[in-house]
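Homework help board

Subject: predicted structure for assignment chain

Our instructor gave us this sequence and asked us to write out the predicted structure in token form, then describe one feature. I got the tokens but I'm not sure how to describe them. Can anyone check?
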Amino acid sequence: MMIAERVLMLSQDGTEVAVPVRIFAPVEGKEDWSCRTEIHWPEGGRVETIYGIDAAQALYLSLLAIGSRLYMSDAHKEGRLRSGEPGSGYGFPVLKMMRHELIGYDAHFDGND
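My token output:
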């Protein structure tokens, strides 16, 4: 079951294209929990399943994975991806070692300052 969605915008060929980011409810397994995430880029979706020792960890690690994927994307590096105002960030956390990559509100609230 999808529990959250954020739609980012991508500048592509002079138009704005939606990039839906979806997070699904954690699912209990025999020994761990899993949480599915989706980033629907125009050239194809990226679907991942992230695992944790409990539902909270699986969900948290999923958010980190999304943030990391967005900040490492070519679209981000080229300045073509946005959530709200250009340069304001995407609203997802990243691994501590990646915080120097953050922009806008993400850098203000979660950066290394």
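Reply (TA_rk): Your tokens look well-formed. For the description, you could write something like this. Helices lie at 55-71, 74-77, 104-110. That's the kind of observation they're looking for.
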